Amino acid sequence: MATTEKSKKKFGIDHKTGRLGIGGLHVPLPRSRAGRITVGSLLMVGGCLGFLPVLGFWMVPLGFLVLSHDIPVVRRKRRRLAVWWAKRQKQKKVARGVDIRE
User: Please, what is the end-to-end C-alpha distance for the chain in angstroms?
Assistant: First the structure.
């Protein structure tokens, strides 16, 4: 079964279009580096105020994702988390006895 590139990338920034993909939702990001850093920082600050209505703790990882586009330290941390998560999911499948061949 062939999968398209769009269906593969469910969460992350598409560098070709400059859009942030979250599941089936694609949100445009500012083109300027300063604009992306501002949006990412505001998302993280708003996430710290997650106990308030409308704002939520979901904004913190989204802020990290936006900041990882421009800040190398955050990008490395995000990549390490992604690799760790993939290994963890693979180990869970092996432990359950699920066929992991692709």
Answer: 11
